[in-house]
Amino acid sequence: MSLFTALASNVSSQHDDALLAAGGPPVPVPASLPGGSDRRTLLWHWIATNHFFNSSLWAEEDLARRTTVSSDEIAQNKRAIDRFNQARNDATERVDEILLTELGLVDAASAQTDAPVSKVPPNARLNSETAGSIIDRMSIMALKIHAMRAQTLRTDVDDDHRTNSRVKLEKLLQQRADLGDCLDTLIADTQAGRAYFKVYRQFKMYNDPRFNPALVAEQQARTKA
After folding, report:
1. Does residue 1 sit within a domain?
2. How many Å apart are CA 211 and CA 209, to the nearest integer?
3. Is residue 62 part of a domain?
4. Domain membership of residue 187 as a residue range
5. Residue 181: how many other CB atoms lie within 10 Å
6. 3-state secondary structure at position 118
7. Could you give the number of structural domains in the chain?
8. In a domain, 221, yes or no
9. What does the pLDDT look like over 48-89, one tens digit per residue?
10. How far from each other are the two terminal CA atoms of the chain, in whole angstroms?
11. Which pLDDT score, from 0 to 100, does residue 215 have?
């Protein structure tokens, strides 16, 4: 079976199953993989890892909006959000590296470097959104769907709340289905040579003490002290 067979459907199922098993975000961190794992195993590991960090972000975002805890606790939530967001982006890039290597659209030796070498089919269009980015968005949609479905089941609210939540849930499900169709279409177009995408490095400068000007200033001040 191809690595790309029913990709969108399988991604949605993995996201939903993880949330159902965990009872909500965050989902458990995926187990470490042994060296030499094949591409299929690696792909699903990184899809699961991306979902873990998105679900961790979701949980921290809720906590960061508390109003009855200390500023120190909120600061800890905000720092966790930064870490999880960086890791979520890193996992998205791993997904793109694996997919592009499997599609023959990137030089395998350069795939994990800061300058991946793309192999562009003649006359193919460049898709600005990567397959990994769509999968990342599908993970977030799964979290929204899980949370909105829970709203439809609440017994401490009135019927209007549940009815409005059901309407929103249907919209969210359609939006995820649309994303899934876009993912499968992009993969089909790349396989047919009609389109391609690239590994895009996020280079999150605010998390890097070498590039964040506020952190550079702090380090310079400590050096001078």
Report:
1. no
2. 6
3. yes
4. 7-203
5. 11
6. strand
7. 1
8. no
9. 999 999 999 999 999 999 999 999 999 999 999 999 999 999
10. 62
11. 66
